[in-house]
Amino acid sequence: MVVRRLLWMGWLLGVTLGLEGCASWLPQASTDPVYFTTFEQARRAIESIQPGRTRVQDLKDLHLDTVQQPNTVVMSYADILRRVMGGSVLAKHDLAPGIVHCIEAHDACRGLEYSITSIHKDRVGSFWLDFINFKRETVTSGWRFNALVLSVDGVVVYRSWGGQPEVNQVDRQRNPLGPLQEIGPAIVTNH
Q: How far from the centroid of its chain's Cα atoms is residue 21's Cα?
């Protein structure tokens, strides 16, 4: 009798530990930047640019060239016009002096648009409840940084930055019917 209880408790403990270990089987995803590891590093790099003094070739030393920041959009004069003026009722005198200088330079005006992101998505909770689609919980964390740098004839005339210094989001999905939850919409849409 005592041996049977010990075996039962050992089995129960083994199952419990096994189920806890299954949490590591849940999916994870991440997007990491090539160089910057924090929002503040990216912000400091952009803020160190001095309009009128910093040259476009100096951006390499700040890790802001298109090689070190592969998702950088290189903007033409037309792209900059659409971005700055596109559909708005702003007049030139409403714009920053560096933007006006760039617009007046026409084809000598170039822009770099940075989108630097560090996002991690982790599914948490019970592997089995997630696997059979009863309960899924995803924790998203990280940061998003974006910046615009405009130049005329190789000299930066304008820079600005923005973004989300802290991303912290929890998405919860509960399906009381588990794997059967999706059958209803499939039946309705197939008729």
A: 29
pTM of the entire structure? 0.73
Of residues 140 and 127, more confidence is placed in 140
Place of tokens 């005006």: 109
Based on the structure, what is the number of domains in the chain? Answer: 1
Which residue segment(s) compose the domain that 156 sits in? 23-186
Residue 102 in domain: yes
Answer yes or no: is 79 within a domain. yes
Q: How far is 36 from 136, CA to CA, in rounded Å? A: 31
Pairing of the two strands 109-124 and 135-152: antiparallel
